Amino acid sequence: EQRRSCPNWNISGGSWGLALAFVLNNNNVPVKVWARDEKQVDLFNREHTSKYFDSFVFPSSIKMTSSIDEALSNSDTLVLSVPVRATVGLVESIKDKIHDKNVVLTAKGLDNGEILSERLKPYISSLKLSVLSGPSFASEVIQKKTTCVVIASENSDLSKELQNDFSSDFFRVYTSDDVVGVELCGALKNVYAIGSGFLDGKKVGYNTKASYLTRSLHELGNIVLNRGGKETTLLGLSGIGDLILTCTSPTSRNYSFGYNFNGDTTTAHTVEGLYTLPNILEMADKYKIDMPIVKAINSIIFNNEPVEECMHLSQKRRHPEHRR
What we know:
This is Glycerol-3-phosphate dehydrogenase [NAD(+)]. Its EC number is 1.1.1.8. By secondary structure, the protein is α/β, with parallel strands linked by helices. The chain has 2 domains: about 170 residues, Rossmann fold; about 130 residues, Orthogonal Bundle (N-(1-d-carboxylethyl)-l-norvaline Dehydrogenase, domain 2). The chain contains 15 helices and 10 strands. α1 links the parallel β1 and β2. The radius of gyration is 20 Å and the shape is globular.
């Protein structure tokens, strides 16, 4: 039995888009995947496999198309799982086709110094927009390993409806009304994951790593609370949960980039933290928020600063716990 009478189409043939399509399909929610690459579409529809997941075979009931018009027809909800840098352009190109649809954002990052929900206001009503985030690797989702995420929306009815669509015994969905906090946590954790990779690559030890994670959470809190986000979000799945995951696992592209960093950024197209860096610095400057760790990571990548010296200086601040 289908959970909804109208198809839910997943827009994006990337790893996370396919994982979410798998989740929805597992719940008997009709879903179709859109991808630009014709070869990728042909392979998926013929063999039900993807380059992102080795030998994993997807259910034949999940179909893929390279036609955006086909993907947008007969649908009520779109799941946008394209990279942040491509999201605004894609939405702008299809704005006339999606004005009456619900849109779920899954990309984690900033664009033009703002969160995506702000950038997309001219095209999508806030009451039709939601954000899905939290500690989750696509490779584990398709293995049905227990995963907990958050769906944030200003529209409580929408978030509950989406919670019902996505929730299963292995994919647990919580709801939130803190769109700003959830988006900022999702964007910033990628940047901090790069810095965490730097430290582990240099084998600085567990003491330093624990200090780094604590100070990163504190710094993340400064900008989340400044921009109107909630402390409960920081202490939840999309906050500390996602921060721990991405800062400790080599499965994270951002962590792996930092761990193996050799000064080259030209091939790091899938490292969202790199795209987020200048955007978060722009936001911090605009709202006068001190972010020494983010600045240190930026200096290491783009100014060739030594990791040890830069990260040491970034944490040379008096923590609020330390009062004279």
